[in-house]
Amino acid sequence: MSLLVVGLSHRSAPVSVLERASLNADAQLKLVQDTVAAEPATEAAVLATCNRIELYADVDKFHAGVAELSTLLAQHSGVGLEELTPHLYVHYEDRAVHHLFSVACGLDSMVVGEGQILGQIKDSLARAQDSHTAGRLLNDLFQQALRVGKRAHSETGIDRAGQSLVTFGLEQLAAGADVQTWVRGKKALVIGAGSMSSLAAATLARAGVTEIVVANRTFERAERLARILTEGDDTDVLARAVPMDSVPDELTRADVAVSCTGATGLVLTADAVAATLEGRTGAPVAETDGARPTGAGATVVREVREGAETPLPGAGAVDENCPLDLSPVPAGFSVMGEAAVAGMDAATLEQHGAWAAGGTAVDRSREAGRPSPEADADLITALAATAASVGRIPERRRPEPVAEAPRPEPVLFLLDLAMPRDIDAAAHRLAGVRLVDIESLADASADAPMAADVDMVRRIVADEVAAFGAAQRAAHITPTVVALRSMAADVVAGEIARLEGRLPGLDDKHRAEITQTVKRVVDKLLHAPTVRVKQLAAEPGGAGYADALRTLFDLDPETVASVSRAENSTEKNRGPA
């Protein structure tokens, strides 16, 4: 059997696809159950977070396993296989181990180094164990991934390379300002009471908000989170719980709202946010430019011909005597530029050169200080020669930035950490609103600098992958070694029984001494070969030693299989580390 992972994440798929492919708890359970029921797989686990969905399985056939796991992901996510396939990635054997260890260390997170993924891996293992779909391989894999992640955080400064998604989101809301300074004195609304919402509430409390209101569909969970926040030793925040239907009223009083629920639809629509703003200001809310802002001082770019101070004849400015058809030329582009001469032959361009030299429309449109008609004629002749040799005229242009109209200062800050999204993306167009969601966080973190500690973590991951592979290969031969020793014990027992038949008068003392001697001989004969075969099996390419041992000693395959089944049964009942 071999480890296979098929999945998609923020690195391989757009947020819109991830959002549609997200799986709730029931869907995850059904997915792993259907996976182990499929022919290629014997174990399965799902790792589903806000920016990744991955299906891990122990399969006996690679190609059949990839096809089956991909199909199951498509079926349970509701995204068609043809649409999903371009965004899927596949890892096998050591590459699959390397991938999960990297994920556990935060190297594959949207915010490098974030530690929340460890809790999500632990939850994934617990769900697989509860559904009895995790055997020896996945138990070993996920528990080792947890240990590798903890090692990375304790032995390196990976925490300095990035923050939790919550902290990063708050930094984006603060738009470069110090978060603690920015958030001080503000009132916060937290929608949801799960792990991410609880982390957001605790982060806001430590940052210095004056009040936190927690809303959740299960009011008791909201109350419990509010009580934890109030009783915390490291904050003095005022926290209270409200039912979910109080969100619109509470939003009119909040400065910052963080939402992360398991809802399948929108929790806050753009209309609801607009109504909230109208309730705060008493004035209708306008929409700004539909383009998502990219930060302070964002600009738009238009292309202008280098050196062109006045638009030359183009569309709507055609001289009837001009031999060139200038109607397709956009206003503001030179008649000598690419837009005019693309596809023109050299003879036509030479005609235009002669016409320009005669002092016609182009000459009359010149400003003082511009080149003479003769210079233009020479230039066009050169252009004609170029067109004859390369077929088109490259035009040199430079971007000219034009500042877009500034957005009004926001009065309501929204952080959407849910997948699928809780807050309508259209809310970012409302004047007075700043919305940060998973999509904008992905854009903002794409070019985040990598710390030197990341290289240290990568080395840890590489070492741990090698160690895990060696341990798995050694463990693969263990059932065969156990079966060999069991066969040797049966041989000893049979020979002692034959000896007693031949020597019926043998007393207990001598019988025990003979039995112990025979056992020592057998143990010494088997010790060196079994130790050595374990060492050889742990090396790359050592999988064949188990088969060789079974063949050399004519071991019963069912005996070996029964040992493996007993080990798997023990692993499935083991709790997460």
TrEMBL record:
Pfam family, one: GlutR_N
Site (Important for activity): H99
Reactions accelerated catalytically: (S)-4-amino-5-oxopentanoate + tRNA(Glu) + NADP(+) = L-glutamyl-tRNA(Glu) + NADPH + H(+)
CDD domains listed in its UniProt record: NAD_bind_Glutamyl_tRNA_reduct
Enzyme Commission no: 1.2.1.70
Location of the active site: C50
Protein function: Catalyzes the NADPH-dependent reduction of glutamyl-tRNA(Glu) to glutamate 1-semialdehyde (GSA).
Record note on quaternary structure: Homodimer.
Protein name as catalogued: Glutamyl-tRNA reductase
Organism: Streptomyces ambofaciens (strain ATCC 23877 / 3486 / DSM 40053 / JCM 4204 / NBRC 12836 / NRRL B-2516)
